[in-house]
Q: What sequence folds into this?
């Protein structure tokens, strides 16, 4: 790319920033003008408007009352007075609480209405509630005389108080809710919470209902839905890790996920499902069927930023059921996406932690996490832990780094010889001869043109493993270091009054420093490859200028811990490069190559075979 292209790119960037700033100012001006217009319109409204609104509300209440009366009459006729009376009532809330979660139940539907994670807070310091009564739903669909949804009925609490906190003596507590169809038959929900657990066992008992259920019934539907509140600082970043996940049965059952990047998504699953997870970036709400769901439909919809919510989740799940079924065993997990915590339950929950796939996940699972856990047990500062982890990784990779540098040094000292060959074949028609002679030089001196690339490629799995590890690392959540108040989210030293496209509305210092360090590292590396830079000038521009700018744009909204790791990695690379430069003598390298060129070139078996075939062909 020439100077004109670079100037053009800069001008496009300036135009985008200017347009964003102008658009924000215009929107602010429009909102102020609209507020004035609304105030004037409100002042001009007739005085009896409030009376009209009140009459509309009264009419709606009257219609709802009439509708309820018809529903009560229909249920009373089909299922009896007990069920009919249960459709009316006052919603009340009951609590089970251990040292980890506070579970609030509603007598309306007998459901879990909200869950609070007691050990954690939202990014602004508020209580961390996974879902609220107003923004969640849970019901079971049955046919008892007519189709019913349990969420419409008021259950009767049995042996449950308003404050069911587990005391020091308690190891387990239960909350029981019943929906009576008559005096001797009912549906019973039994919730059990153990001390020190994020799991809530949920058992549905069917007592005396055999003769009231259709004899051809083979399954029943469970409907579960919730709006996931925004728990972390950056909406966009949290949204990228918030989605529906579900796992197939068995120890090696695959995990499937809806794409978090799409605004909406849905999936119809026709095979068995072990559990469904309404997964947020660092917390999960998981519904488990101990004997598997037979099938299900899952969906998700992304909320608008600043709405206070990230995504709406929905799941309709089928469980095997016949009139002879006495109970259904289910369970909920409400807790953090901590790899080691999730693994304790032996249900494959840990697969929801996005550590990558194949070799990337293997590196994170068996190398990075154990080392990180070991360091965490001895060191309080996570910034120091990341520093030590980076140093250890760079030390392990140093032999590859050294080999890469040595290969580039060989290419560099051969540059005068390559220049002579280029001068020998100035015409374009001689490009093939020139290339053959250059490759012959490399082969004669024992230099592999790809020798500098291969060690770098071998380091790529580590690079990608770290890219996956830091955003998924719950341990970094709300942990501060230097100016960053949360290493799991972006660090901001300046909040801009407008949003820059692809960049955001703030400046992340760790990302800025990382981009500068990447530029310096690239500058040193390109200096080592002068001959390659002449052959591929576009590559020099890409690595030296474009990559740091793109990383600056991409990583501005990423976790500060990730940018900090790459910054440290680049700085250590600079130090290693300086150290290697002091120990590698170009003159000595060149002398070794000259010495190697005098020796006969050892041919591979494949080359020998080709030469023999060529000789036989000539004889014929």
A:
């Amino acid at each position: 790319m020439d100077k004109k292209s670079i100037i053009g790119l800069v001008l496009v960037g300036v135009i985008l920033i200017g347009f964003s700033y102008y658009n924000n100012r215009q929107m602010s001006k429009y909102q102020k003008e609209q507020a004035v217009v609304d105030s004037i319109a409100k002042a001009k409204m007739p005085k009896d408007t409030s009376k009209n609104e009140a009459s509309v509300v009264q009419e709606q209440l009257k219609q709802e009352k009439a509708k309820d009366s018809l529903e009560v009459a229909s249920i009373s006729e089909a299922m009896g007075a007990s069920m009919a009376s249960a459709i009316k009532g006052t919603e009340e809330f009951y609590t089970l609480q251990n040292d980890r979660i506070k579970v609030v139940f509603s007598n309306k539907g007998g459901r879990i209405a909200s869950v609070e994670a007691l050990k954690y807070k939202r990014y602004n310091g508020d209580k961390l509630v996974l879902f609220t009564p107003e923004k969640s739903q849970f019901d079971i669909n049955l046919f008892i005389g007519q189709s019913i949804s349990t969420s419409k009925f008021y259950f009767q609490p049995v042996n449950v108080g308003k404050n069911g906190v587990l005391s020091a003596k308690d190891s387990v507590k239960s909350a029981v809710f019943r929906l009576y169809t008559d005096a001797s038959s009912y549906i019973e929900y039994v919730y059990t919470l153990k001390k020190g657990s994020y799991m809530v066992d949920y058992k549905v008992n069917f007592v005396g209902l055999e003769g009231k259920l259709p004899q051809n019934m083979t399954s029943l539907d469970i409907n579960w839905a919730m709006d996931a509140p925004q728990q972390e600082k950056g909406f966009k970043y949290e949204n990228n890790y918030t989605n529906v996940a579900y796992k197939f049965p068995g120890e090696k059952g695959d995990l499937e996920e809806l794409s978090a990047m799409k605004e909406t998504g849905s999936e119809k699953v026709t095979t068995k499902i072990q559990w469904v997870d309404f997964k947020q970036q660092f917390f999960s709400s998981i519904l488990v069927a101990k004997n598997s769901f037979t099938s299900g439909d899952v969906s998700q919809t992304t909320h608008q930023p600043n709405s206070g919510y990230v995504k709406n989740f929905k799941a309709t799940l089928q469980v095997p059921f016949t009139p002879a079924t006495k109970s259904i065993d289910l369970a909920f997990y409400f807790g953090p996406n901590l790899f080691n915590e999730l693994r304790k339950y032996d249900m494959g929950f840990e697969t929801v932690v996005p550590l990558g796939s194949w070799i990337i996940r293997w590196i994170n699972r068996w190398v990075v996490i154990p080392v990180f856990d070991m360091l965490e047990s001895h060191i309080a500062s996570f910034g120091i832990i990341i520093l030590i982890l980076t140093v250890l990784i760079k030390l392990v990779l140093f032999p590859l780094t050294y080999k890469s540098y040595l290969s580039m040094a060989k290419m560099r000292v051969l540059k005068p010889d390559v220049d002579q060959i280029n001068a020998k074949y100035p015409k374009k028609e001689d490009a093939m001869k020139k290339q053959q002679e250059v490759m012959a030089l490399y082969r004669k001196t024992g230099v592999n043109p790809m020798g500098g690339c291969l060690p770098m490629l071998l380091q790529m799995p580590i690079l990608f493993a770290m890219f996956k590890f830091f955003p998924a690392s719950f341990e970094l959540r709300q942990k501060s270091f230097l100016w960053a108040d949360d290493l799991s989210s972006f660090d901001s030293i300046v909040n801009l009054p407008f949003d820059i496209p692809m960049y955001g509305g703030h400046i992340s210092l760790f990302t800025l420093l990382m981009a500068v360090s990447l530029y310096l590292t690239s500058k040193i590396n390109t200096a080592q490859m002068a001959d390659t830079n002449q052959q591929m000038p576009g590559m020099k521009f890409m690595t030296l200028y474009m990559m740091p700018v793109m990383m600056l744009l991409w990583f501005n909204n990423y976790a500060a811990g990730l940018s900090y790791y790459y910054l440290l990695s680049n700085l250590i690379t600079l130090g290693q490069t300086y150290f290697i430069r002091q120990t590698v003598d170009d003159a000595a390298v060149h002398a070794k190559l000259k010495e190697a060129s005098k020796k006969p070139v050892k041919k591979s078996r494949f080359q020998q075979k080709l030469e023999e075939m060529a000789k036989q062909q000539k004889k014929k």
In short: The first helix runs from residue 3 to 44. The mean pLDDT is 82.
